[in-house]
């Protein structure tokens, strides 16, 4: 059944797409529509909030809340998405861990290019600490661009003299804006979402002329992970971004960081969002929930 599910999801993602260039507004609307179709558990409550001078969404378990906070960063290539497009991920993590999540609505490019999103993420983390939350009670989590934000925010937090969070869970993270990993070519055609050309378009909006050879943009290549918290990197074998995770895992091991590289075969980018559709999605989030609960105090 799982093999059939993987084939069905792949076929769905390969349905014909618009051939003419899309505006940013169209890209955002189409992404929101796609993610709105994902399944969200019913045993959670959502409440609008503000954190670090940015909007956000609190996702609480309906009952039996455990202590701790999951600070979540949504995906969308830094130009799309919101806490609501990532709700299938955040709500499932909350449902499985019984731990509150705060999902941040960080600023998006091209209106707000690098490093605006990272500045918002750091401000959100700083406010949690200033309000009395212990770093050991906070886990960072994120998908795609949000996974990259989770890692780069730790680099910024260390530079600012802030304590590290308890753990990082990253789902198909984007960690290398140089796109130098071998999977960028070896997985071409297998990845139903991305091509080199599609990355060029979104990267141009986010980078706005900045050099991608920078540890905050390409931590998988240049990040000093010394002192980092335990890392969980979940990725699929059909992803152009596969080596973003494998390279960061290598850097983490070299820096003496506890790291789990969790690779699932024949699944697409951010496959964890397909809960209730793809068995691997539910299983991966079960593993992520266990990882988070093991590390939060």
Keywords:
Rossmann fold, globular, 39% helix, alpha/beta, 297 residues, single chain
Please tell me the overall pLDDT: 95
Question: In CATH terms, what is the architecture?
Answer: 3-Layer(aba) Sandwich
Structural class: alpha/beta
Number of domains: 1
CATH fold name, please?
Rossmann fold
What is the first-to-last residue Cα distance?
Answer: 38 Å
Highest-level CATH class: Alpha Beta
Main beta sheet strand tally, sense and closure: 8 strands, mixed
Task: Choose one word for the global shape.
Answer: globular
The secondary-structure element order is HHEEEHEHEHEHHHEHEH
The helix content, as a percent range, equals 25-40%
Oligomer: single chain
Account of the protein in words:
The chain is α/β, with parallel strands linked by helices. The protein has a single domain, classed as Rossmann fold. Helices cover 39% and strands 18% of the residues. It has ten helices and eight strands. Strand 3, helix 3 and strand 4 (99-104) form a beta-alpha-beta unit.
């Amino acid at each position: 059944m799982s093999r059939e599910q993987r084939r069905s999801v792949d076929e769905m993602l390969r349905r014909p797409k618009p051939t003419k260039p899309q505006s940013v507004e169209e890209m955002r609307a189409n992404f929101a529509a796609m993610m709105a179709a994902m399944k969200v558990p019913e045993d959670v409550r959502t409440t609008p909030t503000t954190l670090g001078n940015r909007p956000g969404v609190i996702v609480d378990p309906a009952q039996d809340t455990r202590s701790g906070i999951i600070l979540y960063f949504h995906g969308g290539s830094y130009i799309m998405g919101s806490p609501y497009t990532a709700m299938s991920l955040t709500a499932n993590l909350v449902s499985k861990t019984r731990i509150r999540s705060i999902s941040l609505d960080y600023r998006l490019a091209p209106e707000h290019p690098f490093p605006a999103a990272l500045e918002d993420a750091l401000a959100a983390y700083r406010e949690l600490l200033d309000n009395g939350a212990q770093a050991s009670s906070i886990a960072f989590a994120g998908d795609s661009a949000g996974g990259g934000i989770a890692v780069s925010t730790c680099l910024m937090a260390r530079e600012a003299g802030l304590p590290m969070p308890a753990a990082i869970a990253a789902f198909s993270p984007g960690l290398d804006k140089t796109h130098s990993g071998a999977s960028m070519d070896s997985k071409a055609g297998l990845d139903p979402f991305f091509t080199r050309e599609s990355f060029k378009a979104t990267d141009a909006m986010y980078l706005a002329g900045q050099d991608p050879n920078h540890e905050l943009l390409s931590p998988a290549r240049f990040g000093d992970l010394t002192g980092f918290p335990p890392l969980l990197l979940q990725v699929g074998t059909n992803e152009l971004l596969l080596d973003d995770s494998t390279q960061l895992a290598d850097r983490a091991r070299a820096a003496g960081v506890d790291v789990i590289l969790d690779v699932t075969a024949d699944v697409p980018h951010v496959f964890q969002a397909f809960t209730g559709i793809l068995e691997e999605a539910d299983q991966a989030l079960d593993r992520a929930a266990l990882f988070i609960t093991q590390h939060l105090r």
